[in-house]
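Q: Predict the bound structure with C2R.
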Amino acid sequence: MVSNAAVGVVMGSSSDWETMKNTCTILDAMEIPYEKKVVSAHRTPDLMFRYAETARERGLKVIIAGAGGAAHLPGMIAAKTTLPVIGVPVQSHALNGMDSLLSIVQMPAGIPVATVAIGNSGATNAGLLAAQFLSAFDAALADKLDAYRASLEKKVKESDLK
Ligand SMILES: Nc1c(C(=O)O)ncn1[C@@H]1O[C@H](COP(=O)(O)O)[C@@H](O)[C@H]1O
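A: Predicted complex:
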């Protein structure tokens, strides 16, 4: 079944939402249709496989996967699809997200995951990176990204004046 979602936002647990909502805020602002789902390589492996295997035929263009601790979800999703996968290391309690980062970033050659920074900034950048991928084929989206950059510049200049 084809949905109208261009981006799939998945997370290993609903406890990751506080981080992953930053990704969704960006996708909302860019008016990019997306779907969001809790799915885990560890706890729901069959569901995770199905999700990744059917992603392209369902119409997704990019998958953003957030997970914490032994964060195998982004890499395992990437193993089952050739869509671009962006991995978000969720900040863990025990090791501050270093475990999440290292679990996601160090993929073997052949199965890439575009890894962003730990936590909320990384989740924001994951949304922006997905938008930037899609903007290669969408001039209106490129304009929205330009406007977003201009708003950042304005904020910095205003803070400087203060
Ligand atoms: N890293 C993974 C995976 C996975 O990689 O498949 N599934 C759940 N988790 C992570 O476990 C942490 C704690 O989860 P709970 O809060 O549910 O105990 C979450 O950050 C989640 O991403």
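A: The longest helix spans residues 139-161.
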